[in-house]
Amino acid sequence: MLNLYDMLRPGVSVADILGDLTAADLRTLNGCWEFWARPGQTWQPGPEFITDYEAGRGWGKDHAASENMCDAAEHPEDWGGQAVVVGPDPTQVKRDCLVGPSGIFAAARRRADAGTGLGIRSHNWNDRVLHFENPRGGGNGLTVHWAASSDPKSVHGLNVGLAWLDEFGLW
Predict the structure, then answer these.
(1) How far apart (Å, rounded) are the C-alpha atoms in residues 30 and 114?
(2) pLDDT tens for residues 40-55?
């Protein structure tokens, strides 16, 4: 798929990339991460299943990680149905990784509104858990827990197949 940055290539016009899009096509494009992502932000898991984003302020690490968590929700069975987001403290995780403009809730809402991905079915702030819609209908899809390195017991007992470790250098 072509993306926004393909328009920067010499000799390529906006019309070459966008063509004659309808209003519905534009709504879909608005929620399409593959179109908006900067080079290197889309998830390319290797055979080792480790992806590391190390970049400066403003590169979009949290946005990319949120979008990648939404990608993972499309195939919850690949991750045993469980994922975790861990940051330095619960306030930071909630602010930056979950509810902020670059968080999982915003990414899931954009995708659900555009029809390009799953929404969040439910969440529980006290239990620090959210559930994506199931891509095949029925019960829960990917379950995402959140924890903090400032509260080491918050990660005890979790058996997850996918982890987002935010602000790893602060641990």
Answers:
(1) 7
(2) 778 776 676 666 677 7
